[in-house]
Amino acid sequence: MAVSLTPTPPILFSSPFFSSAIATRGNYSSRLPLQASPRPCFPHVQASPVAAKSTPSSSIEQETTDVDYDDVAPKTLSSYGPSLWGDYFLNYEPKPLQRSEKWMSARADKLKEDVDMLFKSCNCMVERITLLDTVQHLGIDHHFKKHVDTTLSQIFEGEFNISSLHQVALRFRLLREHGLWVSSAHLLIHAEPSLEQAISFSRHHLQLMRDTLKSPLVEQVKRALHMPFSRTFKRMETLRYISEYKHEEGHNPTLLELAKLDFNLL
């Protein structure tokens, strides 16, 4: 079967409707611009004439590489005045109790060596028992068991002159608290009427003296009248005494710092 290769003649639209449509299209196309002008994205912003120009990519790269950033950087830094904060944040160093646990442990070990030398340098027995009472109230006596036992043995077995009633009472209390058989009013046992009389006597006179005592002794006397030291919760009493010890005349800064570090480390 033979196939005809003759091209199909074009379809001619002789209808008046198609003729008018083609004429109208020609009129619209003649009014369209050959090259579109740049239109801004926002009606209130006018397009810059520079943006309408087409810049070759090579010229952009050339302009970018030729920029001198030293000329662009501001040169008015020296005109700024000093900060109101000063150098606080530059030289900030946290307080000892805000530092790491490792630092506090190392510092506490150094202070223990200093207190150890302090025990060894006490030649007077009165100074030794006063130091022992202080470290016990500060809650750091567990670090110096050897010195505590040595001091208790000396004041229990030795004979020395004590002229102060406070020192006599302190000696008795320290020995009785550690289980050594001596008389002490607040640590009495049954069938000790003389010590019961001593409690009544001392309580009466301490109540009369409360208005004449100075701080921090007045707070310590009030607590002792309410509850003796041997019956208190040791941890709570240590916290109270640490805050009071720094106000005592002749307090030892080494003992105070060690007590604070030890309290925070436990």
Automatic annotation (TrEMBL):
Q: Gene3D superfamilies, alphabetically? A: Farnesyl Diphosphate Synthase, Terpene synthase, N-terminal domain
Output the GO biological process annotations, alphabetical, semicolon-separated.
terpenoid biosynthetic process
Give every Terpene synthase N-terminal domain span.
Answer: 84-185
Q: What InterPro entries does the database record attribute to this sequence?
A: Isoprenoid_synthase_dom_sf (IPR008949), Terpene_synth_N (IPR001906), Terpene_synth_N_sf (IPR036965), Terpene_synthase-like (IPR050148), Terpenoid_cyclase/PrenylTrfase (IPR008930)
Q: Which GO terms describe its molecular function?
A: terpene synthase activity
The cross-references to Pfam families, in alphabetical order and at most eight, read: Terpene_synth
Q: Which PANTHER family match?
A: OS04G0344100 PROTEIN-RELATED, OS04G0345400 PROTEIN
Output this protein's name: Terpene synthase N-terminal domain-containing protein
Task: Recite the lineage of the species.
Answer: Eukaryota, Viridiplantae, Streptophyta, Embryophyta, Tracheophyta
